[in-house]
Every structure is written in C-alpha cells, then in structure tokens.
Design a protein that fits this description.
The protein has 2 domains: 1-82 and 163-267, Rossmann fold; 91-161, no CATH class. 30% of the residues lie in helices and 26% in strands. The chain contains 8 helices and 14 strands. The strands form 4 sheets. It has a 6-stranded mixed sheet, with helices on both faces. Residues 7-244 form the ABC transporter domain.
C-alpha cells in the first residue's frame, strides 16, 4: 500500500455559534485501503464528513487531495475532486429503476433525448466491475430491491462518477446477516480497486472485518489513527468511550483548578 494519503485533513476546526464541534482534527485516507471512522454519538463524525463533502465549510485547517491543498466549498467541489458520500438514507427514489437512480441529476443525453442505451451500458459495467451479481435486471424498480441490494445500488451510483474517495455512512445498518456480508464484500472490493474508502460504523465486527485503519473520534477530537491489526476490539471501544486506551489516544486531562472555600470563610 502507498504511504502517501489520497485525502489528508490537518487541524480542522468547526463551530456552530459558540459550540465548537471539531477541534484540531486530522485524518488520513489512503488509496486501496478502508479507513473506519468510529466514535460515539456526538463525537463529530457527521460534521467531519459534511466538511469533507462540502456541505459545511471549515473554520480552520487544511485539506489536501492527491498531494495538493484544495478548498471544498460545496458538494460540487467535492464531486469534482472525486469524493462521493453514500448516506445512511441512501437518497434513492423507489419509483425509479436502477439505471434511472444511478444517473439521477446527471442523465446522459443525445441532443435533447435521454441516451438510455449509454446509461444502461455504463450502469451495467459499473456493477460488473464491483462483481455485483445479486441484481436480476438493471430496469428493476428500487422499490422491489432488498436492503442489501439498495445499498449496492447506492454504492455503485457513487463509484460510477470516477470517484477516488467513497465515504459510506453506516452501510450495514438494519441489514440481515447475509446482506451485511454482501455489502462488506463490496466495501472491500472498492478498496481493492484502488479507491480510498471511509467506513462509518458502530459495529466493531464490521470494522475489523474490512478495515485497514481505524480513526477514532472522541468529543470532536481525533483520539487515534491506527492500523486495525495493531489494536483490539476493547482498545477501540476504550478510545471511543474515553478517548484513551493505554498509551493510545488523547493526553490525560489536567485536573481542574478550584478554590476550596470552607463554610464561614466566604467574604
């Protein structure tokens, strides 16, 4: 694997009014690897992803993509770089088929007419490149698909646009055992195809099944970025819940200074 990150964040701060949500956050995403982004609810995972994808602008810090410092001010900027996000709600339209969903808002046209043949060919090629065999027809309505198949379509939609970094938000949430296994295989294939993959998950079994690296957020700070092979489940849980695990993680908090006023001595 390459030692140079495809996407590198340094010193990222983000506040909403008086509330600072991200504090000096760094993150490295490498091509050909799955980086699991883990953290408890409120740790800042969603805010960080929205900063990467251009929904939020950062207050401070730098973003480097493919070795060059970049400014991401909108989702269009992120897409132009090759950054795509598959959110938990998938953003698929039940009343459209697979091809229509994959090209929604980016339809191919021949003059003023939709180029259905080209779109169908590109959709099929993308699914084949990901070794997807669970979809019977590209013209199936999304409403007829299982949860695992819907997740597959959403991921393929992200990959279709020459993506280089794909961020997956809880891709196995609410899936059964067999469908979870299919989606995790697809996540691994994305990395094996050379993409940088960020997997957001609360499921430690999923994290250790497919991840090369783990980045743990704690209360808006990056507690640690480690190789998955170098840590245990319990260490990652400790990083998530307390920001530290042994020598790993954030420095110990300094005890608060206070003045002990004995009753009767207050002026």
């Amino acid at each position: 694997m390459t030692a140079t990150p495809l996407l590198e964040l340094r010193g990222i701060d983000k506040s909403f009014g008086p509330v600072q949500v991200l504090h000096d956050v760094g993150l490295n995403v490498y091509p050909g690897e799955v980086t699991a982004l883990v953290g408890d609810n409120g740790a800042g995972k969603s805010t960080l992803v929205k900063c990467i994808s251009g929904i939020y602008t950062i207050d401070a810090g730098t973003v480097t993509f493919d070795g060059k410092e970049v400014a991401i001010h909108s989702p269009r900027d992120a897409s132009a770089l090759g950054i795509e996000v598959v959110y938990q709600d998938l953003a698929l339209c039940d009343n459209l088929d697979i091809v229509q969903n994959m090209f929604l808002g980016r339809e191919k046209k021949s003059g003023v007419i939709l180029d259905e043949a080209t779109m169908e060919e590109m959709a099929g090629e993308t699914l084949r490149s990901l070794s997807v065999r669970t979809v019977k027809s590209l013209r199936q309505l999304v409403s007829s698909l299982s949860g695992g198949q819907r997740q597959t379509v959403a991921i393929a939609k992200a990959v279709l646009w020459n993506s280089r970094v794909v961020i997956l938000d809880e891709p196995t949430a609410a899936l059964g055992v067999a469908q979870t296994a299919q989606v995790l295989e697809l996540v691994r294939r994305l990395a094996d195809n050379g993409l940088g993959v960020v997997l957001i998950s609360h499921n430690m079994n999923d994290v250790f099944a497919v991840s090369d690296r783990i980045a743990a957020l704690y209360l808006g700070r990056m507690a640690a970025q480690v190789k998955a092979s170098d840590v245990t489940h319990s260490q990652v849980v400790e990083l998530i819940t307390g920001g530290r695990s042994g020598n790993l993680g954030l420095p110990p908090e300094k005890p608060s200074e206070f003045i002990d006023i004995t009753p009767g001595e207050a002026q």
